[in-house]
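Q: What would this chain look like folded?
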Amino acid sequence: MRRLRRVKIIATLGPASTSEDMIKKLFIAGVDVFRINMSHASHDGMRNQVSMIRAVEREVGRPIGIMVDLQGPKLRLDTFADGGAMLEKGQSFVLDSDKKPGDGTRVHLPHPEILSALEPGHVILIDDGKVKLRVTESTKTRSVTVVEVPGKVSNRKGVSLPDTMIPVAAMTEKDRSDLEASLEVGIDWIAVSFVQRPEDVADVRKTARGRALILSKIEKPQAIARLDEIIEISDALMVARGDLGVEMPMEKVPGLQKRITRMARRLGKPVVVATQMLESMITSPVPTRAEVSDVATAVFDGADAIMLSAESAAGQFPVEAVSTMNRIAEEVESDALYRSIINNQRALAEATGADAIAMAARDVAETLDLKAIVAWTSSGATGLRLSRERPEAPVLALTPSASTARRLAIAWGIHAIETEDATDVDDMVDRACRIASQEEFAKSAQRIIVVAGVPFGTPGATNMMRIAYVP
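A: My prediction, written as C-alpha cells:
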C-alpha cells in the first residue's frame, strides 16, 4: 500500500478508536504511526492496543509504527473545602505545604520540591493559563503570590511553571513502570513529556537500552533554552504546541515551530508537529479553514510527521480527520511552491561517508530523473540520512529488521520494506529492482539508484551507490 505523500501521519488511539476494525480503517485512511497516550491508558489497555495494531499490520502487510507517550510529571493543586474558589485581580493567594483543604486565600501544593524552587517574580499558571499568579515572597514551605489574571481555581487543577526549572526528572515512577511495560511488548518510539534538559532524555535512553527510539517533546521554555543539546541526544523531536503555548506567549509558538523543524532537519532527526491541528473535527465532520492552513504550513515547513490527538482518540469523526489530513498533505506536496520551499531549507551535508552518499544519491537521482532511491539499511540510519535530503525521487528502505521498518514509519518520504539482507552486490541490485517494480515505484526499463554498505549487514557502513535498470 503506497502513500501518495511524503509527510507521515500519527494518530492517537482512545475511546473513539479502540477496536481492531477502527484501527484498520484509520491505517487505510492514512495513519503511519499510532500513538498510545499513557496519561489515559492502563498497561493492559496498552498491550491490547499494541496487539490490535500488530494484527492489522499482518493483515495489510505494511510496517506500522507504535509510539507510547509517557505522562511525565503532572503538577496539580490539592483540594479546596468548597471544591474551588474565585480569585480576584490583585489579591494575595498562598501556595503552601499545609495539607488542610484550601479556600479563597490559600491552597496546598503537594509538591515540596516546587515550593523550594519558586522565587519572587516567577509566574505560576493554573488550569492551562486560565489563572495567572506571580510570586512575591517564597520560602521552602510557602509561596505568596499576587493574582494577575483572575478566575476560578478548583480541585486538582494543573499547575504550569514557565519561569521555574522544575527540580524533578522527566520520568516519574509511573513513567518507569509504563516504559518497562511498553518495551516488553516491542513498541517502536517512546515520547518523553516535559523535557527540560538533556539529562531527562539520557535517563529514558538508559532504561530503553536501544529497545525503542526516543522522541523528546518540546513543550517547556527550559527545553528551548537547551534545544541544541536536547536535539543531539534525542532520536526525534515533537513540537508540542499545546503546552508550549501555555508556558510561553502563544504568539511565539509559530516561530519556534519553524526553528525547531529546521534544526531537527539539519541534524537528520525526524520532527513531529502536534496539538490542535484539526481540533474542530472532534465534533465536526469538516475542519475550519484556519486549521487546514495550519496543517498545510507544517507540511510546507518540511515536518516529517503531523499528529492528531483528541481528533482520533475521542472525536466523533476519527476516520474523517485522518482522511482530511491526508488530503491536505497530498495537495500541499503537489503545489508548485512546495518543492522550492523544501529545497531552500536544505542543509549542508555533514562530513561523513553516509551523508556524502545520501547527498550524492539525491543529486544523481534528480539529474538522471531516476524513479526511486533504494537504500539497504540495517539500523535505519541510511534511511534517515536520505530522508534528511528530502529527495524528489521516492525512497525505498529495505531492511532485514522489522523494528527498523516500523521505526522508519515516522520519517519523511520513507517507504520501508522488511526483507532478507543482501548476500552480494548482484543480489542487492536484483532484489532492489524487483521490489521497486513490485511496489510500483519503477517500471521495466526505468532506472533506479541503489545505496548500500559493504560488507552487508554492518550498521553505519553506507559506502556505495549503483545505478540499475529495472528488467
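The domain at 8-72+170-339 is CATH 3.20.20.60 (TIM Barrel).
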